[in-house]
Amino acid sequence: MKALLVIDVQNVIVEFKDFQQELNSIESIIQDFKVNEEPVIFIRNLDDDEKSPFNKKLPSSELHHSLKEYADIVIEKKTPSAFFHTELSEKLEQLGVEHLFITGFNTEFCCQFTAIAAYDRGYQVTFIEDATGTVNDEATYEMKGLDVRDFVGTALHWSKVIEVLDLEEYVEAYKSSSV
C-alpha cells in the first residue's frame, strides 16, 4: 500500500513567502491519494519552547488552512525526521504501507531527513521534488546560485535508492486515471 506524507505544512512556514505553486502541487497529489482511498498523513513539527513559532499553543504552529481538511492522520514530531520518537512507524505498519511519497516543507531538513529515515526502515520512497518547498535560499547557505530543492532532489536521486520525481513525472507514473 502507498501513503502520502505531507510534512510541516504549517502557518509559520507557508506564510513565510509565496508557496502557492508548492501548495497546489501538494493538493493535487493529496486528491489523487484520496481518490484511491490511500492514507494521507500530515506531519506537524512542534517545539516546547514558549517563544518558538512551532509552540503547540500558537496559531503559527497549526496546519495551514489550505490543506488541513485533507489530514487523515496527524503525527507530531520534534526533530527533522518524522520517524524519530513518533508514532509514524507503528501507524504505517498498522496500515500495511510499503511505499511512501514525500511532500511538504522544509526540503533540505524535514523532507530529506524523513525520506532517508523511511528508506532506512525498508520503505520504497518517492520524493516529489516540486511538491516540497523551503524558506531557505542561496543567501542562507552562502552559496550563490543554489537551488535548495533541486540540490536535495539531485542528491537523493544519486543515492539510487530514493525515487525523485517532479509533479509531471508523478502524474505520468502514478496518478490515478480516474482523476
Describe the overall structure.
This protein has 179 residues and is α/β, with parallel strands linked by helices. The chain has one domain (2-173): Rossmann fold, CATH 3.40.50. It contains 7 helices and 6 strands. The protein has helices at 11-14, 20-35, 88-95, 107-120, 138-141, 148-158, 167-173, and strands at 2-7, 40-45, 73-77, 99-105, 124-133, 163-165. It has a 6-stranded parallel beta sheet, with helices on both faces. The chain is globular.
Features:
179 residues, 7 helices, globular, alpha/beta, 6-stranded parallel sheet, 6 strands
Count of structural domains: 1
Question: Unreliable segments (pLDDT under 50, ≥5 consecutive)?
Answer: none
CATH topology: Rossmann fold
What average pLDDT do the residues reach? Answer: 91
What is the end-to-end distance?
A: 19 Å
List the helices and strands and how they pair.
Elements: E1 2-7, H1 11-14, H2 20-35, E2 40-45, E3 73-77, H3 88-95, E4 99-105, H4 107-120, E5 124-133, H5 138-141, H6 148-158, E6 163-165, H7 167-173
In a few lines, what is going on in this structure?
With 179 residues, the chain is of the alpha/beta class. It has one domain (2-173): Rossmann fold (3-Layer(aba) Sandwich).
